[in-house]
Specification:
- The chain is an all-alpha fold.
- It has 13 helices and no strands.
- The protein has helices spanning about 35-70, 75-80, 90-95, 100-130, 135-150, 150-160, 170-175, 190-220, 225-230, 235-265, 270-275, 285-295, 300-330.
- α12 (about 285-295) packs antiparallel against α13.
Length: about 325
């Protein structure tokens, strides 16, 4: 059997095929098989659809709203297709009136009360979920998800039925318990009672979000930290303040920030419940902008109020946003 071998040189050693070693690519040059350029562009290409959707769905309406706030836009201008620019007259009319500042004050107190109740109740329920058994936890989470998934108008209709003056369940229960004067009580007659019903509705719909997310955050806490705390003699409260709370603090900051935005812009619950009544005493900034803009058909004035609403919301949330950004910088 013949074997084919490589050629040898004069010294009897195998000959080495010599070839030119390719030089490394210069700076800025890419070889044909190098996908670095594609990798650099890939994140931007993935973000492009979301950026386009944000610009179309949020950016353009915001620009249009800002343009309308500098116009005198009433039914006559709409019918005749006229564009009448009036500068900052809409803003001067809004800011010079007392109604706007009363609504701002009312909106801030309403938001603060709701957020405190939501975060307090949601935190307690979330910690309860972490301590329950599997079956009870599953049952409670199903109830929370059902409350969270209910549409806003449907939930508002249920609460209108619960607190109805003549056939409401709440009045019937109070009457059976001995408070006979509450048999025909009108819960939407005063500012305080109307806000109480709306607050109960908003808290009921918001607690599931806080509770479920807080429970998810508790599952990331290492069990070894609780064991070390117990070995050091820490009780339940000490373990909570030294182990649980530091891990949950970033979550609490972010959730509070989201709840402030969600409660401040609440429109359907208040408007569907009593349309901002009685006597406009439960109007918050979103309701006030709608009533002045669409209700009174002063669309330029309503656009100015809605733009000021965004500015007020940015001022309110700036503190929480600054804390979140500071925390991210500390982590880096």
């Amino acid at each position: 059997m013949s074997v084919q071998t490589e050629g040898t040189d004069t010294a009897g050693e195998p000959a080495v095929r010599k070839g030119r070693v390719p030089a490394p690519p210069r700076g800025g040059e890419r070889t044909a098989g190098n996908p670095s350029g594609r990798r650099t562009a890939a994140p931007y290409l993935l973000l492009l659809p979301a950026l386009l959707a944000t610009v179309v769905l949020l950016g353009w309406p915001l620009v249009r709203n800002g343009m309308l706030s500098f116009q005198n836009l009433n039914p006559r201008q709409l019918i005749q297709h006229l564009t009448e620019w009036n500068g900052v007259d809409n803003y001067q009319e809004v800011l010079s009136g007392d109604d706007f500042w009363h609504v701002v004050e009312r909106s801030v107190f309403f938001t603060a009360a709701n957020v405190v109740l939501i975060m307090g109740a949601g935190t307690l329920v979330g910690l309860l979920l972490a301590r329950l058994g599997k079956r009870m936890r599953l049952l409670l989470m199903v109830g929370l998800v059902l409350a969270w998934a209910m549409p806003v108008i449907a939930a508002t209709t249920v609460y209108q039925w619960l607190f109805a003056q003549r056939f409401g369940v709440v009045n019937w229960v109070l009457d059976k318990l001995g408070w006979h004067s509450m048999a025909d009580h009108n819960w939407l007659q005063t500012q305080f009672s109307t806000f109480a019903v709306v607050t109960l509705l908003i808290v009921w719909m918001s607690v599931p979000f806080v509770a479920i997310n807080l429970y998810a955050a508790t599952t990331t806490i290492p069990k070894e930290l609780y064991e070390a705390a117990s070995l050091d003699g820490a009780g339940g409260w000490k373990s909570f303040t030294s182990v649980t709370l530091p891990f949950l603090r970033p979550f609490l900051y972010a959730t509070t920030f989201l709840e402030v935005i969600w409660v401040f812009k609440s429109f359907a619950q208040i408007f569907a419940m009593n349309e901002g009544g009685p006597d406009h005493l439960t109007e918050t900034l979103p309701i006030y902008a709608y009533v002045q803009g669409v209700g009174n058909q002063h669309f330029g004035l309503g656009a100015a109020i809605s733009f000021l609403t965004i500015l007020v919301l940015l001022v309110i949330t700036s503190y929480y946003l600054r804390m979140v950004l500071k925390q991210e910088e500390d982590e880096l």
